[in-house]
Amino acid sequence: MSNRIITISREFGSGGRTIGKKLGEKLGIPCYDAELIRKIAEESGYAEDFIVEKSESTSGGWISNLFTDRSIGQSTEDSIWLIQSKVILELAEKGSCVIVGRCADYALEDNPDMISVFITGDEESKIQHIMETYEYNYNNAKDYMQKTDKRRANYYNYYANKKWGAASTYDLCLNRSKLGFDGCVEAIVDFIRLRQRQKKEEAKTSSEEK
Amino acid sequence: MSNRIITISREFGSGGRTIGKKLGEKLGIPCYDAELIRKIAEESGYAEDFIVEKSESTSGGWISNLFTDRSIGQSTEDSIWLIQSKVILELAEKGSCVIVGRCADYALEDNPDMISVFITGDEESKIQHIMETYEYNYNNAKDYMQKTDKRRANYYNYYANKKWGAASTYDLCLNRSKLGFDGCVEAIVDFIRLRQRQKKEEAKTSSEEK
Description:
The first copy, chain A, contains nine helices and five strands, in the order βαβααααβαβααβα. By secondary structure, chain A is of the alpha/beta class. In chain A, strands 2-3-1-4-5 form a five-stranded parallel beta sheet, sandwiched between helices.
């Protein structure tokens, strides 16, 4: 069986992180989330909190670069982006895994074993999830959700050549409010099985043609 | 078994229409596509070509309305929108079906049996599909694809309160370039089965609680 590399991108509050963890457990393969940040911190020498902050912000692009000392060479954000991409490629090289966030779908877009998933949710259900997880009131949860998604979109759209949250960016998008956490895990497992069957048939057809 | 109402929205060239047709055949339920246009034509008294043209354009919104005789009352596009929504609701009322296009996911958003699907595809593979289907050259196919998707997005974003092509608008989004036509059909069938299982369990839990 070929490797199963599943990247999970998600709207804030959709529960994509929980789904990634449950999926890893169900498939018996590692799920990289906090561990990925630790690895990037180790390789870059920056603190984990700093990585989290910088890996959701951009260097501001060429206009900002014109007016700063970053006009020549890489910004801190650019360096973290490169290290992050390198760590993701190395993890995928090691074998089957689930990777949550960090634009892993873009870093791995040339990997034929990769299945990119995006998890969404209805607004009210995401706000409820954030209120429960972070003990925020309704307005703070909504504000936090909107700002986080904007930061994620800006970061992705700056570094990747695709659009964050657009259906066309991913192989599979699922609404957690419709399916629930376990339902999303099941749907992803179904999708992986379908791809494995297709690959087997392709390999059979290709060997028969030789 | 509860009704299965599947709406298929799609990027132009992704093959969503073919997938809808194959899905209807596989499930043994009607797929409304051209037939839907015929019904809207019948109810509205307009010609089918006129319906197709007008149901992908907007009346221009309030600015346009200020300068036209449509400032009071409905535009032709608005009337067609209302008839189209009514026809879609009536078809869904009749029983299980697949409905391709026509913002059916929005018309049916309060229907608990509805599963909204969006089909995407990689740019080159969509262009190839359009070249084969319409016998266009590469540049014409690309131009036609981009303009059609822009029109579809404008129309949907004007009449619905969601965003066309955004993962968060739909229950399930699939990339046809990854799965192929039959693979998409299989993935949708898997999704329907999962939802039917979930509904059965919900009904069981709810009856046990009583």
